């Protein structure tokens, strides 16, 4: 815990607030965008390095590591998605690694980056007081990120449904399931719509909830004084699992949803 | 924590990342992996094939060795037989030669003997005649009694 003059509530609130520029809907969370783009670029840059000089010869260490991840994702895709598709595998890879990296920011000690940003911002004259500067480093604890991901996946679900089943097939699926009778079309439609909408909502909220809760616990641990060190360590070790698992779940569910969308019932 | 324009920004970022990944990252890596997998599989196959070839070659070698040994044994056997035959033949010929030599010796001896006997007979006849002549010179005519002496000589 950094500053003595803050009350615990202020401290927590300070940590959970984004660096926002603008007002209302058109406001932008600069920190979220900054970190996510930075991490996404890191992912693409480091993987591109391998891709550029990849050959069937003896691979280097980094190439081995990248290929391990690629193969893992490829296997996951092949297990659930039958048929050929150029988008799903790279999509799954991007989701997995990007979310993993964003989640990984959770393991950076909670005060480091916000405090640094606080003083740098104050020094550059962005705010009257250091405490007016907010800096959240885990993009996946921002609903905007998780919903951006899940809504993109949702759009793909609809695109794939129409692409593989046609508008007619998709409409039929939305209206004639689960009760195959024309009088029950409204009921079917309501049920199917809920099913469909639940997919992006659950994707986004699951990821957000897990990471937000994890972050909150890190913040709470940061306030208990000297004993925070072992507590931090224990929670961080456990959190590694959550980070990886959530990235994997998001990727896996995306694949499953898309394979469901592209195959007949 | 509110939903705001960040959502749009993140969506755009996400689309760009996925697009980049799809275009420039995924294909080369997965191609390299698949190519390598094929190479390794080919290598393993080749190894297996070489192993089989080796086994076959070894079998062939064993076979050929056996054959060669058999042939060698045959040749030795033949040589022995031929040697024995030659020895036998030579022995036979030696015998024959000896026989021949002995026979011709015999013949020669016989001829010699006959000749000697003839000679002797003649000489004896001459001697007898001479003797008789000497005797008869005293008492009889040589011509009158020569047929008697001849008869005597022939009886020898």
UniProtKB/TrEMBL annotation, chain A:
SUPFAM superfamilies given in the database record = F1F0 ATP synthase subunit A (SSF81336)
What membrane topology does the annotation report for this chain? Multi-pass membrane protein
Cellular localization per UniProt: Cell membrane; Membrane
GO biological process terms on file: proton motive force-driven plasma membrane ATP synthesis
One GO term in the molecular function aspect is: hydrolase activity
An example Pfam family from this entry, by short name, is ATP-synt_A
- Where's it mainly located? membrane
Which parts pass through the membrane? 25-45, 87-105, 143-162, 207-227, 233-258
List UniProt keywords, sorted A-Z: ATP synthesis, Cell membrane, CF(0), Hydrogen ion transport, Hydrolase, Ion transport, Membrane, Transmembrane, Transmembrane helix, Transport
List the GO terms this entry assigns under cellular component, sorted alphabetically: plasma membrane; proton-transporting ATP synthase complex
Record family assignment: Belongs to the ATPase A chain family.
What is the protein's known function? Key component of the proton channel; it plays a direct role in the translocation of protons across the membrane.
Per its record, how is this protein called by name? ATP synthase subunit a
What organism is this sequence from? Idiomarina piscisalsi
UniProtKB/TrEMBL annotation, chain B:
Q: Where is this chain's protein located in or outside the cell?
A: Cell membrane; Endomembrane system
Q: Does the keyword Methyltransferase apply?
A: no
Entry coiled-coil feature ranges: 40-82
Q: In the record, what terms sit under GO molecular function?
A: hydrolase activity; proton-transporting ATP synthase activity, rotational mechanism; proton-transporting ATPase activity, rotational mechanism
Instruction: List the membrane topology term(s).
Output: Single-pass membrane protein
List keywords of the entry alphabetically: ATP synthesis, Cell inner membrane, Cell membrane, CF(0), Coiled coil, Hydrogen ion transport, Hydrolase, Ion transport, Membrane, Transmembrane, Transmembrane helix, Transport
Presence of the UniProt keyword ATP-binding in the record: no
**Could you state one GO cellular component term attached to this entry?**
endomembrane system
Superkingdom, natural source: Bacteria
Q: Which ranges does the record mark as transmembrane? A: 6-26
Any one Pfam family match given in the protein's UniProt record, by short name? ATP-synt_B
Q: How does it assemble?
A: F-type ATPases have 2 components, F(1) - the catalytic core - and F(0) - the membrane proton channel. F(1) has five subunits: alpha(3), beta(3), gamma(1), delta(1), epsilon(1). F(0) has four main subunits: a(1), b(2) and c(10-14). The alpha and beta chains form an alternating ring which encloses part of the gamma chain. F(1) is attached to F(0) by a central stalk formed by the gamma and epsilon chains, while a peripheral stalk is formed by the delta and b chains.
Q: What family is this? A: Belongs to the ATPase B chain family.
Q: Which NCBIfam families match?
A: ATP_synt_b (TIGR01144), PRK05759.1-2 (NF004411), PRK05759.1-4 (NF004413)
What is the purpose of this protein? Answer: Component of the F(0) channel, it forms part of the peripheral stalk, linking F(1) to F(0). The b'-subunit is a diverged and duplicated form of b found in plants and photosynthetic bacteria. F(1)F(0) ATP synthase produces ATP from ADP in the presence of a proton or sodium gradient. F-type ATPases consist of two structural domains, F(1) containing the extramembraneous catalytic core and F(0) containing the membrane proton channel, linked together by a central stalk and a peripheral stalk. During catalysis, ATP synthesis in the catalytic domain of F(1) is coupled via a rotary mechanism of the central stalk subunits to proton translocation.
Tell me the protein's name.
Answer: ATP synthase subunit b
Name the gene behind this protein.
Answer: atpF
């Amino acid at each position: 815990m950094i500053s003595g003059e803050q009350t615990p509530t202020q401290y927590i609130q300070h940590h959970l607030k984004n660096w926002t520029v603008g007002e209302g809907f058109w406001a932008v969370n600069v920190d979220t965008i900054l970190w996510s783009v930075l991490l996404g670029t890191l992912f693409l840059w480091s993987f591109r390095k391998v891709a550029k000089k990849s050959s069937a010869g003896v691979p280097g260490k980094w190439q081995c590591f990248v290929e391990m991840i690629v193969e893992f994702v490829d296997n996951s895709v092949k297990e659930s998605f039958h048929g050929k598709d150029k988008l799903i595998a790279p999509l799954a890879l991007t989701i997995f690694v990007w979310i993993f990296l964003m989640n990984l920011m959770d393991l950076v000690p909670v005060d480091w980056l916000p405090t640094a940003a606080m003083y740098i911002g104050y020094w550059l004259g962005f705010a009257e007081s250091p405490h007016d500067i907010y800096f959240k480093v885990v993009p996946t604890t921002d609903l905007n990120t998780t919903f951006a991901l899940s809504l993109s996946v949702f759009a793909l679900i609809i695109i794939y449904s129409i692409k593989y089943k046609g508008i007619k097939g998709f409409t039929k699926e939305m209206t004639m399931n689960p009760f195959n009778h024309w009088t029950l079309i409204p009921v079917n439609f309501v049920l199917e719509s809920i099913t469909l909408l639940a997919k992006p909502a659950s994707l986004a909220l699951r990821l957000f909830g897990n990471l937000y809760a994890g972050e909150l616990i890190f913040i709470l641990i940061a306030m208990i004084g000297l004993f925070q060190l072992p507590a931090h360590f224990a929670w961080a070790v456990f959190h590694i699992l959550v980070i990886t698992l959530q990235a994997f779940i998001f990727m896996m569910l995306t694949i499953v949803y898309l394979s469901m969308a592209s195959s007949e019932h | 924590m509110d939903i705001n324009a960040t959502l749009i920004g993140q969506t755009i970022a996400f689309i760009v990342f996925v697009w980049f990944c799809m275009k420039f990252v995924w294909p080369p890596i997965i191609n390299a992996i698949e190519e390598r997998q094929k190479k390794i599989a080919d290598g393993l196959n080749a190894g297996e094939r070489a192993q089989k070839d080796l086994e076959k070659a070894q079998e062939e070698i064993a076979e050929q060795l056996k054959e060669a040994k058999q042939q060698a044994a045959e040749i030795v056997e033949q040589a022995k037989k031929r040697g024995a035959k030659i020895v036998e033949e030579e022995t036979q010929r030696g015998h024959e030669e000896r026989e021949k030599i002995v026979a011709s010796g015999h013949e020669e001896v016989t001829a010699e003997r006959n000749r000697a006997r003839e000679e002797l007979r003649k000489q004896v006849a001459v001697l007898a005649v001479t003797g008789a002549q000497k005797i008869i010179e005293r008492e009889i005519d040589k011509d009158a009694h020569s047929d008697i002496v001849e008869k005597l000589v022939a009886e020898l």
